[in-house]
Amino acid sequence: MNIERLHLPLEPNGHWFRSEARAEAVRIDGVLLLAGGTPNCRACGVYPSARVVGGVAEVEEPCPDADGITTTVTIEVPSGKLLVSDSLRSVFSIDHDAFTSLDSARGQAQVIEAMAALGCAFGPATNCDLGLFRTGPDTYIMARPEWDEDDTPSLADSSRMASVCTDLWAYSCADFEHWQARGGDPADLDWSDTVVDVAPGTYRFVQHSGERGFDFDGPGTVIFAHVDRIS
Ligand SMILES: [Zn+2]
User: Cα(220) to centroid of ligand 1, in Å?
Assistant: First the structure.
């Protein structure tokens, strides 16, 4: 019996794999068989099944999230005090096991929606100079500013309302009084927690990090979320 191990090109059928992703296969007496699973998809989060077709590993089921996911949620900020933080998980906790893997756009969207249902606007980011910037009377962006050649951020410091430590690769925002009512203690806040004065109302967070082609480390200002008061 002649056994040869090899890696086949992977036809993703819309799923998001790393560009160099291959499928392990064996050729036994001339017959090609897949020898392992596919990587997990960074859009829908599943490990899709594949079959060998003409020397290529073809994923059978198309990706339901091939176009990526823009996640829109709202939170209430009746106090007009928006707490901006790297993590508010001690107060707003969810069971991550109930969701798809967080390294996929689908899993992130599920967590964003579950956190928003508790009153917390959560969003993934990268390890960067993340901040909340005012762009208009009732509009903001959660973004990493572009730095020019003078090492000056392109978004004026005067528009920066908060800086977020990104050791946890995420941000969280909530109404300050709502956070306190759920047990949050202002004595526990540190430099990465800022209370921003905003107009009281309902705030919409449109998270872009799950969109197809979103470049976490891209050139220019990277906007993770648009934030605006809708009522
Ligand atoms: Zn997929």
Answer: 28
Tell me, what DSSP letter sits at residue 88?
Answer: -
Q: Which amino acid, one-letter code, is at 222?
A: V
Kindly indicate the confidence band of residue 158, based on its pLDDT and cuts at 50, 70 and 90: confident
pLDDT at residue 197 greater than cutoff 80 = yes
For the stretch 184-196, what's the b/e string if a residue is b when 16 or more beta carbons lie within 10 angstroms of its beta carbon?
Answer: beeeeeeebbbbb
CA-to-CA distance for 143 and 160, rounded, in angstroms?
A: 10
**How far does the centroid of ligand 1 lie from the alpha carbon of residue 104, in Å?**
9
- Confidence class of residue 219 from pLDDT cuts 50, 70 and 90? confident
Task: Determine how β-strand 3-11 pairs with β-strand 56-59.
Answer: parallel
**Alpha-carbon span 92 to 181, nearest angstrom:** 11
**39 CA distance to ligand 1 centroid (A)?**
10
Closest CA to 176 of 161, 189, 167: 189
pTM of the model: 0.91
